[in-house]
Amino acid sequence: GSVVCPPGLPADWLTQIADRVSIVTDGEPVFLTPYELDEIDAVVTAARVACADTGTIVLDGAPDQGRRAITLVPDTHVCVVEVDQVVHLLPEAVTVLAQHPERPLTWISGPSATSDIELNRVEGVHGPRNLHVIVAG
Q: Are 80 and 46 a contacting pair, CB within 8 Å?
């Protein structure tokens, strides 16, 4: 398989899988095209903050999270959240995010899904089908 990661992701996060998958870094000076991202199996990122009450993680485009496209195109997103990044309620998360108001935000509360008028659930319509959150620390 293959994994894409943002340029600021700690290198040691991928050492245990480096011999089993192809690891591609997205970012300066080379950004992967949507077609190239579509060929990648998974993405590994960090997060800016996570909310325990709702199970929401928020990415703000920092170097360890990368640009939004890498988290939306591959079928699987693995997000590593440090214990000290977990807050209890959404207002606390908003306070953390206010420290960098210029950054674009991606709020994730589970794998991408939608339902049509007959309530047939379809996953992966506008983002990854699989989301794995690892709480570390």
A: yes
Count other Cβ atoms within 10 Å, centred on residue 70: 24
Q: Is the pTM of this model over 0.85?
A: yes
Residue 81 has pLDDT above 80, yes or no: yes
Beta strands (DSSP E) in 1-137 are 2-5, 22-25, 42-46, 49-51, 56-59, 76-82, 86-87, 106-108, 113-115, 121-123, 130-136
Q: Alpha helices, DSSP H only, in 18-125?
A: 34-38, 68-72, 90-97
Prior bond of 29 cis (ω within 30°): yes
What gap in Å lies between CA 87 and CA 97, rounded to an integer? 12
